[in-house]
Known about the structure:
Layout: E1 5-9, E2 12-16, H1 24-30, E3 36-40, H2 42-46, E4 56-61, H3 67-78, E5 83-87, H4 89-100, E6 107-111, E7 139-142, H5 144-147, H6 152-168, H7 177-193, H8 201-218, H9 222-234, H10 238-253, H11 258-267, H12 279-286, H13 304-311, H14 326-336
Amino acid sequence: MSAGFTWRDGERLIRFGPGVSGEAARLVEEAGFRGYALLSTERALARPPPGLGEGAAEVLEVPYGRVDEVSAELFDAAGGRSLVALGGGRVIDVAKALAGSRDGGRCAAIPTTLSGAPMTPFHRTPAGVGGARRVRPALVVADPELMTSQPPRMMAGSAMNALAHAMESLYTPLANPVSELAALRAASLIALGLPVAASRSEDLGLASILAGYAVGSTGLALHHAVCQTIVRVAGTPHAETNAVMLPHFARLMADRAPRELGALARALGDPAGDPASAAGPISELAARSGHTRLSTLGVTEEQLPQIADAAQGHHGIGLTPQPPDRDELLRVLRDAL
């Protein structure tokens, strides 16, 4: 793994390895991105890959907010340019949204978190813009040292989002042997790498890429349906919300998808592969984010019925084996509060 790899997957190119962010400017140019708009954040722009800013016709800081609203806000400033995203999932999703709103629009992603956004076609579209399509980045420059550059607790939350991608990809209707192999490898890398993150950045970076690939192939299910709803209703941070809820949904799915949760348990270190045991190591890993309850993220008891109602309309519910009804989902949310 120390040498990294180059992966051609359909229309996209993934370049992974320690230090490959130093090649970003060249890779972006070789991929046909010239005169691009660079979308990023203050944190990422403090130490950008060399030459990346110089190649940009426009540098746009992506504010905090909903992807559909932020992408609409940046629509005119981005113009008809190709997009290069240097940042986490929100920044990359905004770049995907803007690229998908232009005929032939393309984007590249240089992730600074363990988000699966570089590998998926999932994103909202700009508010008020008709005919937008969903896209995935045509170029991914994945440097594990950059991907694990967040403060430790935030990085742990991001890793839990990646683990959630791995778990959910195991049991949607589009689950398949290829995505399963990628997902289980990702889970084992997170279980090994997160406790000693400083020395295992390659493991965590690769886990993010594999888990993102898996869920991008299979689609999202119950866990993300509910977490995305919590974020919208309560304004909680995305990664930490995933960290809090993942053990609860692992417990819920143990009886609904026993073969898949048993395989996940083995990947996380249980040689017996007991489906019910997967939630234990997930809880231990998730606690590294600094949050184990929704209440510490600002969610209130009064918001839970609204979350349960709104989540029922998410398409991911229908991609879940034996999806819970409103009352069962409300019980899960109360257990997590």
